[in-house]
Design goal:
Blueprint: E1 4-8, E2 11-17, H1 22-34, H2 39-45, E3 50-53, E4 57-61, E5 67-71
Parallel strand pairs: 2-3
Antiparallel strand pairs: 1-2, 3-4, 4-5
Length: 73
């Protein structure tokens, strides 16, 4: 089974695409590129363990069990 990952900076994070639609993945990539210069996003990105991708939102799972939601629509 091939694992899907998203690359940003020097990190690769496992991505679970729940919708199985390439449009959702493209919107997530575009949104992450938009946030490339956002300092708060970069700080949070360092802690992300996995990402769940839904049709209009991405759920970032952090190691302490908290979740961070990002609107990608």
């Amino acid at each position: 089974m091939v694992q899907d990952v998203i690359l940003f900076g020097n990190r690769a994070v496992r991505l679970d695409n729940r919708t199985h639609k390439p449009e959702s993945r493209k919107r997530l990539n575009d949104r992450v590129r938009e946030l490339a210069y956002d300092l708060e996003f970069r700080r949070r990105w360092k802690q992300v363990k996995t990402i769940e991708l839904w049709s209009d939102a991405a759920i970032f799972h952090l190691p302490d069990g908290t979740k961070w939601y990002l609107n990608i629509s």
